[in-house]
Design a protein that fits this description.
single chain; alpha/beta; Rossmann fold; Dihydrodipicolinate Reductase, domain 2; 2 domains; 7-stranded mixed β-sheet; 6-stranded parallel β-sheet; 15 strands; about 35% helix; binds NADP nicotinamide-adenine-dinucleotide phosphate
Length: about 325
């Protein structure tokens, strides 16, 4: 069976996921496209999915009889209504992060899915499908003993002028927030944010770098350096310290060169290259589960937990180093 997918939002990631479905992965085809920018949807149709039908609105695409599953890759603030409409239509839906722009919005999606009675939503937290993180989780669960500390860094070479302090959480650290809950099988209880002096490449509306310290229910301390003007490359680091030893996220594969009395290896500069394979795997999982009418992987509950944690981290950014509590309500049994 070929799963018939409709894509809402044909910007950078919507186009890339359409390419994946049409040219890389098996088992699905893009049969419908929609974007407020009709020219963008038409360009993606022409370049990648010539048989797809164009819809004026995301709602019309979701309601279309030929659409069996939906990809929501539009601007973040539009995610909640589209995901709610897909749930109401009983169609599996892959939603890029954020699931919603507020914790309340994400909770409305959780409630709608619980009421529907079956998982339909997968959130685009692709790091869970990265081969390095999967290997790290195996090491943490089988070899290094109960985790005590996590040291992590998320570094970008540069960001646009419009990138402000809270975006370090919402746009950048959101991936760490999700992946550490999954890696440690744990939930957060508090967040603190500490700032060194501002880096010279930053500006007055961006505190950069910053260090977020998360504490978990099991007593693990996680420190995440976010440095979005680090200049040298896109670099994701993570080391877990356990009772018996430590485990480190593997570096991306690179050729080790010896040239002119120097050892050299390349550091990536673009996040798309760093996680390209994990996007393929996450969509493969979506296609497999949606073909059976359901969803697996990062859930609406995980999207909600990430939203609650991000809100606490943003509050902590303005709390002079004081801890901000992170509280989640009881998890519905649908997500056990
Ligand atoms: P983008 O290039 O700006 O594309 C978003 C597209 O959605 C634009 O074509 C935009 O049209 C369109 N749009 C806006 N409102 C819409 C609506 N109501 N209905 C349908 N289409 C609408 O952004 P992007 O970089 O692809 O990001 C899209 C989403 O994916 C964001 O939520 C982002 O956080 C997420 N994302 C996730 C990852 C990841 O690592 N998982 C990576 C990149 C992006 P206009 O241009 O006319 O506004």
């Amino acid at each position: 069976m070929t799963l018939k997918i409709g894509v809402i939002g044909t910007g950078m990631i919507g186009r890339d996921h359409t390419r994946r479905i049409q040219q890389v992965l098996a088992g699905a085809e893009v049969v419908a496209l929609s974007d407020v920018n009709a020219a963008s949807a038409e360009a993606v149709r022409k370049d990648l999915a010539p048989n797809a039908k164009l819809y004026d609105t995301g709602e019309a695409l979701i309601a279309a009889p030929e659409v069996q599953a939906v990809l929501v890759t539009s601007w973040g603030a539009t995610h909640e209504p589209y995901v709610l409409a897909a749930i109401a239509a009983g169609k599996p839906v892959f939603c890029e992060k954020p699931l919603a722009t507020t914790a309340e919005g994400a909770r409305r999606i959780v409630d709608a899915e619980v009421k529907f009675g079956r998982r339909l939503v997968q959130v685009g937290f692709m790091r869970r499908y990265d081969a390095g993180y999967v290997a790290l989780k195996h090491a943490v669960e089988n070899h290094t003993g109960a985790p005590i500390l996590v040291h992590a860094a998320h570094r970008n070479p540069a960001v646009p002028e419009a990138y402000l302090t809270p975006m370090a959480i919402h746009d950048t650290m959101i991936h760490e927030i999700d992946v550490f809950r999954w890696l440690l099988n744990d939930d957060y209880v508090s967040a603190r944010v500490l700032y060194p002096r501002n880096a010279a490449r930053s500006h007055t509306k961006l505190r950069d770098p910053q260090v977020v310290v998360l504490e978990t229910q099991k007593g693990v301390l996680i420190n995440v350096e976010i440095f979005v003007n680090c200049a040298y490359g896109y670099d994701i680091q993570c080391e877990v310290v356990g009772e018996e030893g430590t485990a480190k996220l593997p570096e991306p594969m690179t050729v080790d060169m010896r040239l002119g009395a120097k050892r050299q290896s390349t550091i990536l500069t673009d996040w798309k290259d760093r996680f390209v394979a994990s996007y393929d795997v996450e969509l493969n999982h979506f296609i497999a589960a949606a073909s059976k009418g359901g969803a697996t992987g990062p859930s609406a509950w995980d999207g909600f937990a990430a939203a609650v944690t991000s809100d606490a981290c943003v509050l902590a950014q303005e709390s002079n180093g004081q801890a901000v509590a992170i509280e989640l309500p009881a998890r519905p049994s649908l997500y056990n």
